[in-house]
Amino acid sequence: RLRVREALGAREPAAALVTVQGWVRSVRSQKEVLFLHINDGSSLEHLQVVADPSLENRDLTFGSAVEVQGKLVRSPHRMQNVELQAETIRVVGPCDIWSFPLKMKERHPLEYMRQFPHLRCRNNTLGSLLRIRSEATAAIHSFFQNNGYVHIHTPIITSNDCEGAGELFQIEVSNEARQSAEKTHFFNVPAFLTVSGQLHLEVMAGAFTHVFTFGPTFRAENSQSRRHLAEFYMVEAELAFTESLQDIMQVMEDLFKTVTSTVLSKCPRDVELFQKYVAPAQKSDITHKLFFSSCRIPYSEAVEILKQASQTFTFKPEWGCDLQKEHEKYLVKHCGEVPVFVINYPYDLKPFYMRDNEDGPQHTVAAVDLLVPGIGELCGGSLREERLPFLESRLQRLGLADAYQWYLDLRKFGSVPHGGFGMGFERYLQYILGVDNIKDVIPFPRFSHSCLL
């Protein structure tokens, strides 16, 4: 039994019978020969099946599931080495082509496929995306494990608001159990879906030096824009014994280049599909992104660049205000459409855990954001405040000292300089593939289909 990818990869014909299972992507019946193209999701390319017309039956249609047994023979088609000469064709699952939303040999736009979240994975574009996503996921794990990081499963349900923005989904019991829990929380404290695994990673970095997590995170930002998701995957890493933002930036860059190289080598045809049909207007292809010469500018300099811009911004750039997407895109353009590291953000703009630079009069922290063309922020990180007096003072001012007593303990018992970063996985895919709507890089977009809500 062979996968379609394995069959297509065969260099020479084989005398032995093989079995291939998949779904019919096209049917063409001629007087003396029956042609099928079948695919099982393992490859963008379809396997051509050549059969005697007597094997055709009324259930053998576009979309039907089949099992074909036959021999791999040399193909006269210049695009593939072999084809399958069928001896038997069994229809495992018929498909009603009249009600099936996908049509044979029709290139359905992504907007159309969003109507059918339960069927969109059968579309070529979404199939390619999911294969790329799978290979990128494996490459991320390989990168960290090959560099000595320990993989940590951080909690999905937590009492911490790591980002401090208040955009949290709170966990509540169902209606059936609510009456018994009226006077108390299920976990005795308010619980939320995680916005980041960072604080838990800091705990582990105190024992394992280099750690990472890669899992779902949730933001309750009420936005239906093309760049926001309520549920997305985040790659996060923490490095103990590091005193330089440069170390953090180097890991960001190495991670991006390693994962992207793997995607290029493992999924060349899938990437080519995006370059040809989804984002043909991109100024540079994915290979150029591998060899970027990144620009590094302090936040203060970035604000001055924005203030001197001839462009009129919706949000006026001011020192002490967060950079909006329009600002980020302008900075990338100003630096020559290359990735930009913006470092040293205002102290009052960032969360409590970021390291105080002790500079003045403009008080900043050792934070960094990686901005990339077309997307804006791709990665965000910082050195963490490892000095107990500094952290204690800030938490007291924010009224968080009691809630984060455990976090203070980490600074009492063997504290070391450390830092880390997070990268939104879907934004990474958007960037390398040129996808405009972030909802098109997730397996299951949120639509009003009861089976997927």
Automatic annotation (TrEMBL):
An example of a Gene Ontology BP annotation on this entry? Answer: asparaginyl-tRNA aminoacylation
Give the PROSITE patterns listed for this entry.
AA_TRNA_LIGASE_II (PS50862)
Q: Which family does it belong to?
A: Belongs to the class-II aminoacyl-tRNA synthetase family.
Residues in Aminoacyl-transfer RNA synthetases class-II family profile domain copies: 130-443
Key words of the record: Aminoacyl-tRNA synthetase, ATP-binding, Ligase, Nucleotide-binding, Protein biosynthesis
The domain of life for this entry's organism is: Eukaryota
The molecule here is called asparagine--tRNA ligase
Q: Which InterPro entries match?
A: Aa-tRNA-synt_II, aa-tRNA-synth_II, aa-tRNA-synth_II/BPL/LPL, Asn-tRNA-ligase, Asp/Asn-tRNA-synth_IIb, NA-bd_OB-fold, NA-bd_OB_tRNA
The GO molecular function terms of this record are: asparagine-tRNA ligase activity; ATP binding; nucleic acid binding
| EC assignment | 6.1.1.22
Check the record and name the Pfam families matching this protein: tRNA-synt_2 (PF00152), tRNA_anti-codon (PF01336)
Keyword Protein biosynthesis recorded: yes
**Enzyme group, top EC level?**
ligase
Cellular component (GO) terms are: mitochondrion
